[in-house]
Amino acid sequence: MEDLVIRDADVVDGTGADSYRADVLIDDGRIVSIVKEAAAAGCQRPKAVRELDAEGLVLSPGFIDMHAHSDLALLRDPDHSAKLAQGVTLEVLGQDGLSYAPVDDPTLEGVRRAITGWNGYGDDLDLDWRSVGEYLDRLDHGFEGRGIAVNAAYLIPQGTVRALVVGWEDRPATDRELDRMRRLVAEGLEQGAVGLSSGLTYTPGMYARGAELTELCRVVARYGGYYCPHHRSYGAGALEAYAEMVELTREAGCPLHLAHATMNFGVNEGRAPELLALLDEALDSGADITLDTYPYTPGCTTLAALLPSWASEGGPQEVLRRLADDDAAARIRHDLEVTGADGCHGVPVDWDTIEISGVGDERLADHVGRTVHASALLRGEEPWTTARRLLLEDRLAPTILQHVGHEENVRTIMRHRVHTGGSDGVLTGAKPHPRAYGTFPRYLGHYVREAGILSLEECVAHLTGRPAARLRLPDRGLVREGHRADLVLFDPATVAAGATYEAPRTPPTGIPHVLIDGRFVIEDGRRTDALAGRAVRRSPV
């Protein structure tokens, strides 16, 4: 007898097709049989060691988080309910051009400092890998060889590669350095990475010119991967930045996946249709493009990310040195508040939109939950003084919510034919963005059931089948015979995000069961002790 039969589920299969009622039989981690309308047909129904009555529940593929920052969290927290409770069964790591492989010792230290706000410094972990393959092996073995909470794919971070080869300086790569970067990207893809990411408003990735990125994308294309850029601007010049990525990947012959594809700041209010027109023109001419978004208006990053690129040249220690120097700090302030720093997307910063969401030093915790402007008022000082002091005292660790998005843009982009879901969820800090804990149930509850922006079948396809196709995973992302049993059962009438800006770690409702590889990881709304996740490596071309 098979392991499990899920009876009388309303199957939404991830293709976008209409739902249907069925019994779904699972054995040895895979879907072995789907019997449609089993009860009504009067046929002998499939039997298994265990039966689950799914009356009133939707059965869908597990959700794929196309933009996750769980690179260390998966090795730190075996529970990882932040994602599992949402129905996420696979996360794509290595985002925004900065992560922990490939590295040598000095590069690793610089990266740890640069993205402490995303993942913590990591001094609670043994970061003993150096190559992409070693990192994926570490994920495979997880906790005492048992695995990790969810499946994970990895993008080679272009900024980390540049730091390893060129350093943190703002200069073109030499021919020899470019050759080495090509080799590192090829090696990472051979070891199982699914593509390449960039953070082109983060150092040192932002120092790469278009020609350099094009050459790296040519390597990605040869291996059947995709390029996932956080491009050069989401504010002033956003459309030009999107167009650069479209043209760059067209020239390289490389598939493009646009990370957190938003149109933010006042200069872009109501301009989402212009972005989609740009993408439609490229798609209609044969380009291979997808994108992901989160269903919220504020962004989330580090406070240090707002600084102008010249201030970040040389790495984290040089940033701190410049912030401590009064003349350099005055120049940074002018770029931020008057000119519009490239780190702040070319838009002069409005300190009343910058909310501190986390700090590394708990002695600074009274800033959390307040905007920089509000925190400065309490201290009787100018906002820049508060921001500068925070960066220095917390050694670049503060994270922020940036309240610069537009609901109309969010809704317009999520309707698009190449849209997928990504949380961009940072799990650290006292008051993280609620998207880390609420993205997928918010799509299903708010935007499907309440707002009617997408049908249930469309939305599930955006969160499952479409991302699996982008990742070239031939046996995931659909409820289909022979596919892996990465599945979610949810109540379409009650599914909702519990996370709010005031209580961002509140779990969702209406998702009683989640399975990975046929094993219950959430059962009756509670986390089991199963560690069914593994590294998911790129399929050969």
UniProtKB/TrEMBL annotation:
Q: Provide the Amidohydrolase domain boundaries.
A: 51-522
SUPFAM superfamilies in UniProt: Composite domain of metallo-dependent hydrolases, Metallo-dependent hydrolases
Keywords, A to Z, come to:
Hydrolase
Reading the lineage from the top rank, the first entry is Bacteria
Question: What's the Enzyme Commission number for this chain?
Answer: 3.5.1.81
Which is one GO molecular function term here? N-acyl-D-amino-acid deacylase activity
Q: What is this protein called?
A: N-acyl-D-amino-acid deacylase
Provenance organism: Streptomyces rishiriensis
